[in-house]
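Slide 14.
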Amino acid sequence: MEFISERITIDEKICNGKPTIRGTRITVQTILDFLSSGETQEEILRQYPKLETEDIYESLRFAANLMGRNYSIKPVA
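Slide 15: predicted structure.
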């Protein structure tokens, strides 16, 4: 298991290695999908009682960090 942050971990045996909120099977992607579809933090926390507000903020920071990296597109044969 790799700790990405205090709240986000990656374990190849959990959710196919997707980043998850520590101690749960709730992926960062799930949280981001709910937010992007217009769900409020309160609605997400109601649906997932194990989550804390800071888990949602940490998911957003994680995504923002990924967008801050440099990427290059390479042709595929």
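Speaker note: The chain has a mean pLDDT of 94.
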